[in-house]
Amino acid sequence: MSVSAVTLIGEGPRSNPLSIWAVNIPNAPTVSLTETSRDSCTIEWTAVEPPINSLITGYIVYIDDGLDGPFKVGYNGDLNPSKLFA
Predict the structure, then answer these.
(1) How far is CA 13 from the centre of its chain?
(2) Contact yes or no for 21/2 (Cβ under 8 A)
(3) How many Cβ atoms from other residues are within 10 Å of residue 61's Cβ?
(4) Which residue has the higher pLDDT, 81 or 15?
(5) Which residue has the higher pLDDT, 54 or 22?
(6) Rounded to an integer, what distance in angstroms lies between the CA atom of residue 28 and that of residue 16?
(7) 20 to 30 A from 56, CA-CA: which of 14, 24, 27, 72?
(8) Is the pLDDT of residue 49 over 60?
(9) H-helix or E-strand spanning residue 7
């Protein structure tokens, strides 16, 4: 949504866009590292409180290869909770 003001001589500039969602998105989970080795690590996260009028349908874990590239999806519990991506 965006709003502008109008006078007899014309319309003014529009406001910055505003996104409106009928349901709020959840807060970020708290993640912690529980174990490490040379080739692996174990993490855990705390479940978040679902927003009002919403349900948490899964969690997505993003991983970084440490080479300054973008994070990639390592696990998508929303689409396929039984599959860990490489």
Answers:
(1) 32
(2) no
(3) 17
(4) 15
(5) 54
(6) 26
(7) 72
(8) yes
(9) strand 6-7
Residue 2, CB-side half-sphere exposure with 13 Å CA sphere: 7
pLDDT of residue 84: 66
Query: Do residues 52 and 24 touch, judged by C-beta distance below 8 A?
Result: yes
The predicted structure's pLDDT at residue 47: 84
Q: Which residue has the tokens 């993003």?
A: 62
Question: Which two three-digit tokens encode residue 11?
Answer: 């319309």
Indicate the residue type of 22: A
CB 4 within 8 A of CB 13: yes
3-state secondary structure 21-76: CCCCCCCCCCEEEEEECCCCEEEEECCCCCCCCCCCCCCEEEECCCCCCCCEEEEE
